[in-house]
Amino acid sequence: MKIESIGNEALKTAKQVYVSLGPSGREAVTENQFGDTALRADVEAEEAVLAVLKAHHLPITILSEEHGIVHLSKNPKYFGMLDGLDGSGEYLEGAGGRYGTMLGIYQGIDPHYMDYIYGGIMIHSQGGLYYARKGCGCFLLEDGEEQSIKCSATKSLDKGTVLCADLNYDRVYGTNILTTRIQRLSGYNVQVTRSFAAHFADLVSGKADCVIGFIRKEDLEIASAFPLITEAGGVIFDIDGNSFGKQKYHELRTKKYRIFIASCGAELAEAVRQILVEENS
């Protein structure tokens, strides 16, 4: 079975777990490696994904939010990133929020970002499996129908440009890593939610033009979304204008709080970056 089929099966199984748990998924069950409270849905969605990968004997090592490093093979050929439930804050508030399970699979155990094989985002609350396979494009599988999707063609930054920012970390932990910089974009259409899964799904389907955030929690979300963004025609740069593609995952994931800009194209990413780095704006 192809890796993309295994990945999609794993994310569909996570969706089944989410549905079966119902309200009990919001129960706090443990504290994860980052000191955050893990919900039952977080933990069991990851367990469901890991079980599928194991059942297919995929030779992979997974870095996950709730279970840490999981070795599914003595001789792994692949490295994966897993976030069982991205957007927990949205999930806890109940109906209307958008959140999901994110999975990335890369070639080798010390991959560059461009060594991706597969990336997938299952948006649980509103349905839809967004996934990408290297060299084949990005797709949305919804209600049994599959369609090819891609980033928007937006090049310029104006008041119609849809920008997404995740300021939840600053709000929860009382930090100011991104908030002040985002204030420099006042006057533009900046949408703020608490789910990278939703932000990245909107970016690769052309509903959003740019996503702004920063590296945290081992960069699980960005690495999972990188295959989709790339296959949908988008780009990701850090605050200094360096492309993620040529960098190694294990090196970049240690650069905690490093700001990134994911965009439908390099021209727009640079326009946003210039505003974010201006000291007197």
Give a nutshell description of this structure:
This protein is 31% helix and 28% strand.
- Tell me the CATH architecture of the largest domain: 2-Layer Sandwich
User: Please, what is the average pLDDT?
Assistant: 92
Q: Which residues sit in consecutive blocks of at least 5 with pLDDT less than 50? A: none
- As a whole number of angstroms, the C-alpha radius of gyration is 18 Å
Give the number of helices: 9
Structural class by helix and strand composition? alpha+beta
Counted up, domains total 2
Oligomer: single chain
Number of extended strands: 15
Major sheet, described briefly?
8 strands, mixed
Q: Give the N-to-C terminal Cα separation.
A: 53 Å
- Order of strands, main sheet, comes to 4-3-5-6-7-8-9-10
CATH class of the largest domain: Alpha Beta
Question: How are helices and strands ordered from N to C?
Answer: HEEHEEEHEEEEEEHHEHEHEHEH
Q: Which bin fits the share of residues in helices?
A: 25-40%
Under CATH, the homologous superfamily of the largest domain reads Fructose-1,6-Bisphosphatase, subunit A, domain 1
Strand % is 25-35%
